[in-house]
Specification:
By secondary structure, the protein is α/β, with parallel strands linked by helices. It is built from 16 helices and 27 strands. The strands form five sheets. Strands 2-1-11-10-12-13-14-15-16 form a nine-stranded mixed beta sheet, with helices on both faces. Strands 7-6-5-3-4-8-9-19 form an eight-stranded mixed beta sheet, with helices on both faces. 48% of the residues are buried.
Amino acid sequence: MNDAVIKNSQYNIGHICTAQQRDLGLSDKVAMRWISSAQECKDYTFADLDHESNRFANALQALGLGAGDVFFTFLPKMPEQFFAFLGMLKQKLIAGTLFANFGEDALLDRLGDSKAKGIITKKSFLKKINNIREKLPELRWIILVDIEEDLAPDILSYGRIMSQASSKFITPLTSTDTPSVLHYTSGSTGKPKGVLHCHNSIFHQYATTREVLGLTQNDIFWCTADQGWVTGTSYGIIGPWSHGITQVHYGGGYDAELWFKMMQDEKITVWYTAPTALRMLLREEPGIYEKFDLTSLRHICSVGEPLNPEVIHWAKRVLKKDVYDTWFQTETGGIMIANRPGIDIRPGSMGKPVDGIVPAILADDGTPVDDGNQGNLCVKAGWSSMFITFINNKTAFDSKFRDGWYYTGDTAYRDADGYYWFMGRSDDVINTAGHLVSPFEVESALLEVTEIAESGVIAAPDEILFEKVVAFVCLHKQYQFSKELELKIRLHVSNKLSSIATPQEIFPVEVIPKNKSGKIMRRVLKAQYLGLDTGDISTLED
């Protein structure tokens, strides 16, 4: 993206993705083909996208909401998700997105920490919010997409407020440093941190949509990512629509045959998905793919966790398509390192840096590490989609930067040809199906179960999920472990955090290993689980 794309110094993401595309002559072009889980289709043009997001911006303004206020979507994938997100940005609100499967604790952490003024959601999710509402004094408005009349003065009907709002809206001039999108990410300790971006991110998202995903205005693009995830906003909304590209959005879940029929019928040209989905497809009967015509599909891109080389070989052999692995984080806002069209794929590698990105492998003391040796994966600070802070946690934000380098928390090595290879996390964060889960959060939720005295949580390798959540629980003496208790534990974690954070395996143990300062020694638990040497345990509690 260059200055010629920015009109009249207007850097507002919502404006660029809608009104600017309309002004460029794309009013009648399909921006989104919406396909429901029941296979019902509806097309929305760029003019539609502009008008609906304008209505939401006007509705927010009528509610007294404006620049800098935090507002969240808490929705499954549906058209209202996109209208609301773009409307919030037009009104210069900070647009947050939440996964539809979040439990009460996950909601409370994010809504409370951000001091959110409002949320748009479904009636079936209202109970979760009401259960924590008294702990959210800043939350003024709840908008429900599936009711006809307001339920209360502060619980409003989306349909009503939209019907009363004008489809005309002049987006206020927005500078590059205006806060824009908010996503929360988990760390190994403490609460999730709010990663805040600004409208400047569109430069990098626009550029990588072309350079890495290889998209042009003639493409039909499908990104499977949920909008609760940074991929779902950066490349399921911002990147493609800033180019005026048609996207397919699907509201259903995994179904191999249905997915491939959809790619055939909609003539998808570029598909962006997760390694977990590709690994699931690999396990299907190869014959199911033979009946579908995928000649329109140019290539597949992958994101979320490292892509196994066998998946790349499978796709080339069975689907006759290349898969390009891409690497970025919530904090980076856009793709940093990638395999992509124009460079040779090194199966198993992260690829090479994209234009304008300067990575390095550094030792703990900040000195460069020789090629072939593992170290901290760092990126030279200053790229346009770099996050601008952790909300209410400047200390944590500052700790991520040293001598002009952003420390990603990942470890990797670079080979002699400039390809980067992911080795792991430098902390205990669990990457399960592309979502980061804090072991601390799961451990805390487990301790709320009456029967559990202590808990420890680790990541373990998994063929489908990349990593799975494994929990070890020490029960109070009067209780015994049982299938019923195991089910109770799973339900509790799912309701409090999310289904993603629910342990795949739960083991009762006599003691949770801790060091003399009381810190859980997760590496010992992991070694025991994997049947490996536990290493130095001299600091264990007696």
